[in-house]
Amino acid sequence: MAWLWNEPPIKPFRQPQEDAPCPKQTVYTISKEDQRRLAPYLPPKRDTFLTEAYRNDPAVSSIEEDEQASQHNAASKACLRNLWDNKNPTNLPHSTNQVKLMTEGLPHVTLTYAQSLDSQLSLAPGQRTTLSGLQTKAMTHYLRANHDAILIGVGTANVDNPGLNCSFSYDGGKIVELAEQPRPLILDPGRSWKEEKCEKLFRLARAGLGRAPWWIVCEESVGKAKVKERDEERITNIKDIGGDVIIVGKYANREDGVEWEKILRALWNTGIRSVMIEGGATVINDLLRERNQHLVSSVIVTIAPTYLGTGGVVVAPPRSKADENEARLREVTWIPFGQDVVMAGKVARN
Ligand SMILES: NC(=O)c1ccc[n+]([C@@H]2O[C@H](COP(=O)([O-])OP(=O)(O)OC[C@H]3O[C@@H](n4cnc5c(N)ncnc54)[C@H](OP(=O)(O)O)[C@@H]3O)[C@@H](O)[C@H]2O)c1
Question: Could you tell me which residues belong to the region Disordered (predicted)?
């Protein structure tokens, strides 16, 4: 089997119809042993920090900050604070610092992506490049099953035609229910999403096989005024399948990045307690830079045994001090998955 292959080109977009055939779902699973090894890097499960009254509350279904949402948010903080204060080892297999971020109204953030041996995500910007094998793909679906939301940057959304749903099965049979599916989030500070390129995401949401996406845009996007003409049409398309829009923070340019803390707090307020951030490189590099890395709880990287060569999309955050590492991971585990290896760790400054 080849370890690297290029996906066929994206088909021309047609707004999926109600009766459009559902994409065929591959069922993924991983061993109990691999689940156990990944557990310390995952967010705490809802039933370990929420009282019974709130466990089954579908808190990730709306962006409205209504009475129910604020009660839910307050209850989550109180339960987490209680666990944090008592440092209950049964309920907290996680780093206590990870839980501390959650007591402060910030979701658990897991950065996860696949890279080549030369630290690249794809052969070129705008080119989808499959790096990982089937086993690590299954691992990604396991991670998706354990997060409330999946976030990708608009650069990835515009080229990868991602599905962003979860087809993981704990018993190798039934895929997790819609209620357990993560919410897809498209981070698009400059409002340049070509939602017609995300035909798969729209089709899955329409078929009830995944949640509808939320489009995250910034309040002010300098120099992007002309694309706002497209906003109305885009919002209609998103809302048409049950999605929504979150407007938060400011954005000047790609180099300066976005206001992550504001974005993450806005997500917490909607009931999202954990976010898996899947790329691309601009998003990952922005989160790993010094001013943002305290917001990241875990990093889970798939390393594929291949070199892409120069010219690809590289993960390397901007260095803040000339003579110091930008970020170091601790409590690191390396897990082989087929021909790939998965490295899981926590950001040392947390
Ligand atoms: N191997 C993997 O695991 C993996 C995973 C994901 C993606 N990829 C690949 O990575 C490539 C895409 O990476 P990318 O870096 O071009 O795109 P990206 O990170 O997905 O999105 C970058 C774009 O999104 C906006 N943006 C979103 N968040 C931003 C932030 N925090 N700071 C600054 N700008 C932000 C900017 O748009 P504006 O320019 O409009 O302002 C920027 O150009 C694709 O080839 C994709 O296939 C690989």
Answer: 1-23
Closest C-alpha to ligand 1, atom 16:
155
Burial (CB count <10 Å: 0-12, 13-18, 19+), residue 232: exposed
How remote is the CA of residue 258 from the centroid of ligand 1, in Å? 12
When the candidates are 3.40.430.10, 3.40.605.10, 2.40.50.100, 3.40.50.720, the CATH number that belongs to 29-347 is 3.40.430.10
Question: Which of 308, 23, 343 has the alpha carbon at shortest distance from 162?
Answer: 23
Alpha carbon nearest to ligand 1 atom 34, residue: 254
**How many whole angstroms from 151 Cα to the centroid of ligand 1?**
11
Of 9-18, 98-107, 267-276, minimum mean pLDDT range: 9-18
CA 335 to centroid of chain Cα atoms: 21
Contact call for residues 108 and 95 (beta carbons, < 8 A): no
Between CA 88 and CA 259 the distance in angstroms is: 33
Given a contact cutoff of 8 angstroms between Cβ atoms, the answer to whether 151 and 275 are in contact is yes
pTM value is 0.90
Question: Is 259:57 a contact under the CB 8 Å cutoff?
Answer: no
Q: Determine the distance separating the centroid of ligand 1 and the alpha carbon of 345, expressed in angstroms.
A: 22
> What is the separation, in whole angstroms, between the first and last Cα of the chain?
40
- pLDDT tens string 173-211: 889 888 889 999 999 999 999 999 999 999 999 999 999
Buried b (16+ CB within 10 A) or exposed e, 196-231: ebbbbbbbbbbbebbbbbbbbbbeebeeeeeeeeee
Element (H, E) at 309: none
Q: Which pair of structure tokens corresponds to residue 298?
A: 């875990």
Arithmetic mean of pLDDT, 75-89: 73
Q: Whose CA is nearest to atom 48 of ligand 1?
A: 121
Residues 90 and 102 sit within 8 Å (Cβ to Cβ) = no
Q: Kindly list the protein residues whose Cβ atom lies closer than 6 A to any atom of ligand 1.
A: 113-114, 121-122, 125-128, 131, 152-156, 159-160, 187, 189-190, 192, 254, 257-258, 278-283, 286, 313
- Among candidate residues 242, 196, 245, the one with its CA nearest the CA of residue 219: 245
| pLDDT band per the 50, 70, 90 thresholds, residue 221 | low
